[in-house]
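_Backbone structure tokens_
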Amino acid sequence: MSYHVDRFYTAVSVLAGHGHIKQRLIKAYEENLGEIAADELPVSVKQAFSDLDHQMHRVTPLNGEGPICASVRKMSVAEATECAISVVALYGEIARLGDGDQPKLPLDGRDEPIPPFLVKSN
């Protein structure tokens, strides 16, 4: 989970930097969030991340540009701002959850996290 928190933190840092919102959104998503799969995230943020990912891949790229660049290019400034707000909100939720979304295994009356290799994925 800390990997995802770090990725979102870095994306938020890029969004808070200098430059036009569209340029910052492209850089934040391409460099930090583009390789994250929604299934890797806590259940409470999967749908919101899937919606954001859909927004960032909704336009077919032309002339060698990537899908993220093409999609953001077609967005209005207001739409790009909403996507940036979504990134910040997702970061807040993932950071708040921390490792608390990990299943627990009762051992001798103690709640211990289940090692990731023992958790069956869907």
